[in-house]
Structures are given as structure tokens and as C-alpha cells.
Amino acid sequence: MLRNIPVNMQGYKLMITEAPQEKTREKDGVQEFVKDREGVQQFVVSLFAKRRVQPGEFAGKGEEIKVTLTADPGEGFEEGVYVQLIDATVSHWENDNGSGLAFKANGLTPANAHIPAAA
């Protein structure tokens, strides 16, 4: 299965619909914090993604996506703020309940900020 495929979201406007928070999951009826293999706390943010259009083009519908963040994005990322994802990737998942895409990024930056190229 293909995992962590780099994805270019520059052609989309991304607006925060739920501010970043610590990622949790339910295990044996108890909520627990989600950490990566190195024990680092993961975060999650909900974004509304809508394609950027040129004059005369039809934008179509947007879609809400949840993005796992590999680190705390810091202050200033509240509902309604437009952002860009840093080093975004996507992975396909599948289980008995269905399948889909899982988005992940190393962080957020305000939409008008310059993102340096990945090393």
C-alpha cells in the first residue's frame, strides 16, 4: 500500500473549521492521546479545502478534511484562518468499516506566508 505520498495543496484555499488540538482515540472505552513511533504527541486540524479558480472557471464544491499534524502548530490558528500545509502527504487506508485518504503535514503556516522548499 502506498503511504505518505507528497501532495501539493497550493491549488486549494484551506480554511480552518476546527482549531488544532491534541489528537486522541478511544481504546478499551478510554480516550488516549495519539503519539508517533518516537512518542511525540500528534495534533489534528479540520480544514475546508476549495479549489482556487481563474476568472471564468467554476469552483465546484469544497470538502472538509482532517489533517494530522506532527507537531503543535502554535498560536494564531483559530477557526476562519486561511493556512497552508507544510510538507503535506496523503496515505490510503482501508479497514472493515470502509476506506479513504489520510492527510498528514509537518505543520501549518498562514496562507500569505512563504513556505521554504523541503530539504
TrEMBL record:
Q: What top-level branch of life does the organism fall under?
A: Bacteria
Q: Could you identify this protein by its name?
A: Uncharacterized protein
Which species is the source of this protein? Answer: Saccharopolyspora terrae
